[in-house]
Amino acid sequence: MSRLNILIVLALAVSPNAAPNAAAQGNSSSTAKRVEPFKRPTDMRVKPPADAPSGPNVRRATQACPATLDDMCQKFWAFAGQFLRTNTIPARDREILTLRTAWLSRGEYIWASHHDSFATKAGLTADEVSRVPKGPDAKGWSKFDSALLRAVDELQTSRFISDETWKALGERYTDRQRLEVILTVAAYTSLAMYFNSTGGQIEPGHTGFPE
Asked: What global pTM score does this model have?
C-alpha cells in the first residue's frame, strides 16, 4: 500500500464525521427485527391430558398445560395473568407492549387474542393497532408511545433498555412501573414461545397478523 493510501485510511479512521457503531451509541436499532420465521404447526403438538378442563370457556391452546393439574403450569399461567389482570400501568400502554412483543416474537395467537378485543377496549384505535408493526418511529405516535415501543424493541434486540428510553419512561412511570414494563414484555415473550411451540391454534372468530 502506498504512503498516500495509508494516509487516506488513517484519515477516514479518525474522521469526526465517521458514523459511530451501535456499541458506541449505546442504543439499539430504532426498529428491531422480528424473530426468524418458522412453519407453524397445523394442530397442537402437545395433546391435553385426558382430564384437562374443557368447555366453551376454556381455550384449547391452554389445555396442553392445565393449571389445575400441574404445579408448573399453574405458576406459569399465574405469572402470565399478572400482567393482564393486575397491571398498574394504563391498559392502553400494556396493550402497546403486548402487541409489539407479539409482532416481534411472531406470537400470532397473542396478536389474534388482543388486537381487536383487549387492545381496542383499552383505547387503542384500529389505526394505532395497524401501526404497531411499523415500530416506534412510525408517524403518528406520541413521544411516550414511541418510548414504549422502543423499550420492547430494545429488550428484544439486546435484552437491555437504553438510558435514553429508561429516562423517557421515567417521565411518566415510577420505578415500579418501569419494572412492570420489563416483566410484561418478558411474560408475553414466554407466552409467544409457548403458543408457537405447542402449536396453539387461533381461536374461532379471531384473526391473525395483518397481511
From this structure: 0.82
